[in-house]
Amino acid sequence: MVIVNTAGYKIDEYINELGSKAPVPGGGGASAVAGALSAALAGMVCNLTVGKKSYIAVEDDVKRILEDMNKHMESFIRLSDKDAEVFYPLSQAYGFKPQNDEEKKLHEENMEILLFNAAMVPLDIMKEAYSMLGAIDFLAKKGSKLAVSDAGVAVSMLRSAVCGAMMNVVINVKYMKDRIKAQNILDEASELLENTMNKADIIYREVLEVLL
To answer: How many CA atoms lie within 13 A of 143 on its CB side?
Structure first.
C-alpha cells in the first residue's frame, strides 16, 4: 500500500510531485486539495469577521462556521491521502497480464473492487464540498465586506473540487462490470455536480456583482 501524506508536503514539493510521472498524487488528490483550499479561504473570511463590532449580530454563526471549516480542511486532507491509497493499487493492476482463465477471473474480480473503491473516494470529495456551499453563501452575504472576494475565490475552488472529483468518478465507474452499481454511483455524482455548479455559479456571480 502506497502512503501519501498530503499535509507533510511543502507546497512546491507537492506541485512538483503532482506534475511528475508518479501515479499519485493525481487528479483526485488535487481535487481534495482544492476543497481544502476552499475551506481555508472560508475560514479566513470567518477570522476577519469575528471580533468586529459591525458583525456582532452574526458572530456566533460565523464562529460555528469557522469550526466546521477547520473540520472540512482536515477531512479533505484525509480524502487526498485516501485517494492515493485506493488509486495506487488500481494503477498497478492495470499492468497485470493474466496467464490463464483462473488468473483472468481473479483479476476481473479484483479490478471491480479496485474500480469501486477508486470511484467512492472522489464521490466523498464531492459530498464534502457540496456540504460547504450554504456556509460560503452565508459568508459572502454576511461576512466581512473586506473579504468578500475571498468568499468568491472559496466558492470557485469548491466548484473546481467537485468538477475535478467528478472526472475521477466517471473514469472509474466506466470500466466497472456491475453496470447497475456503476450507474447508481454516476447518478449520485451527477446530481451533486449539477447542484453544486448551479449554486456555486449563483454565489460567484453575486460576489462579482458586489465587487463591480
So the answer is: 30
